[in-house]
Amino acid sequence: MNIRKFLTRFRTLDDLVTAWSVAPEAAAILRTAMREGTSVVVSGATHAGKTTLLGALIAAAPAHHRIVTVEETFELNAQAPTSSRCRVASPASKGPARCRCAGS
């Protein structure tokens, strides 16, 4: 069993800058990427802060942008009017993985 507790105090890129987790220059680049709809890949080791960063990136996206999340376990909470949450089920011993989406 894995119990994950997410910190709610780091919801924006500004919060991450204040906590010295993201450099101000990097936050500016990421804000521009979100505003312009540029694809951003977030990867890293376990407990590196990927989910926290993704949450801040989602918060930086304009309200009219469509947000689609694909996760094995629902961890992100996209508060966007045009968002869809997809869950990927791990493949059974035989057969492909499945993806089920819900949302607007």
TrEMBL record:
Q: Which Gene3D superfamilies match?
A: P-loop containing nucleotide triphosphate hydrolases
User: What molecular functions are annotated in GO for this chain?
Assistant: ATP hydrolysis activity
Domain (Bacterial type II secretion system protein E) ranges: 3-83
List, alphabetically, the InterPro entries matched.
P-loop_NTPase (IPR027417), T2SS/T4SS_dom (IPR001482), T4SS_GSP_E_ATPase (IPR050921)
Q: Which Pfam families match?
A: T2SSE
Renumbered residue ranges of the record's region Disordered? 85-104
Checking PANTHER family in the record gives: TWITCHING MOTILITY PROTEIN PILT, TYPE IV PILUS RETRACTATION ATPASE PILT
Concerning its family, UniProt says: Belongs to the GSP E family.
Name listed for the protein in its UniProt record: Bacterial type II secretion system protein E domain-containing protein
Question: To which species is this protein native?
Answer: Microbacterium oleivorans
